[in-house]
Structure formats: structure tokens, C-alpha cells
Amino acid sequence: MLVSDKIIIADVEIFPGSREVYYCNRLVTMTGLEFNLLWLLMSDFPQLVTRESIAEHIFKRSLVESNRSINMHISTIRKKLLVNTDKSQIKTFRGEGYVFNE
To answer: Contact at 8 Å (CB) between 92 and 98?
Structure first.
């Protein structure tokens, strides 16, 4: 759901102006790249965001299949959003991309 200049999905709120992320009303510290990646996933909710799209929009380059950096950053974001639950907010579609979950 889009509310003014923020996106709220389930317990995650993301504010592009201040570049802040809140999970269960708790501020979550993210790097700039992690923020941009989470914003992309949440902006396209509930659509699949392809690995190619992530490479182009976040890393500003074409996808190199052997590069595991997208997986690493997704993993880091998942860990930061797993504080109060064991359910991941990001679902992987192997070889295709990722979807932000409610």
C-alpha cells in the first residue's frame, strides 16, 4: 500500500525521503544499496523482480550469471527483517528473481 511518500507492506515501512526502513516499528539500519534493493522489491509488490532488472537498476550493469552479489545482498536484507519472525519477507524464484511477501 502506498501512503504519501512511503510504502507499507505488512510490518515493513520504507521511506524514500529519509531513506529509512522500519520493521515492526523498529528502525532497521541498511546500506544505500540494501535500501535501493528493498525499495525496488517493495515498489514492484506483488510482482516478480528479475535478477536482470536488479542488476540494471541497482548495480547499473548487465547481469553476470556467476556473480553472487545479488544473492548476498538479498540474504543480508532477509536477516535484518527476520528479527521477530522466522518467515522471510523476500521469496526467491530460483534462476528468475525475487518477490517481496506480505
So the answer is: yes
- Other C-beta atoms lying within 10 Å of the C-beta of residue 32: 8
Q: At residue 41, does pLDDT exceed 90?
A: yes
CB 89 within 8 A of CB 80: no
φ and ψ of 31, to 5 deg: -70, 165
pTM score of the predicted model: 0.86
CA 79 to CA 36: how far, in whole Å?
16
CA distance 95 to 19: 29
**pLDDT for the residue 64:** 66
Residue 59: pLDDT above 70? yes
